[in-house]
Hints:
single chain, mainly alpha, 2 domains, 7 helices
Amino acid sequence: MKLLFDFLPILLxxxxxxxxxxxxxxxxxxxxxxxxxxxxWLRQRRVEKLPLFTAGLVLVFGGATLILHDPVFVKWxxxxxxxxxxxxxxxSRFIGQKTLLExxxxxxxxxxxxxxxxxxLAWAAFFFAMGxxxxxxxxxxxxxxxxxxxxxxxxxxxxxxxxxxxAYMSRHIKDASPPKEx
Length: 182
């Protein structure tokens, strides 16, 4: 359910684009993102930094798209988000005792420190590559192809990357079960 909630703005952007155009879709993206933040605040009486940050970027880039009637701004938003994530993951390698990934998942997963570093660097590289891929598709192909890539391509690539990460992590997870007797 949380996954659907997180991807709801992108999904509704896609549907609005298919039913209307990029400007209607951008308006839907802004409204749904702001509604999401409002819903989180109503339920928890606080909003984490990431949804606020994302909403701010949607408002700035989506607003610029609508005000200037130029889709280039909304096309840049996924790249900016991905590159900021890449910078955060990379920066966490040099700031503090633990990487960002270890801070996020360390309570659920026990991995050796070098593995956390490799995973963090892999995520930074992935986010950087996703930003490049978005720019390539946005400015090489037509708008419809970019919208399809934004939903299906980016989601599919992320899923493949997460599965690859899970496979890599599984090799390093310490088995807590008692040894079997013969």
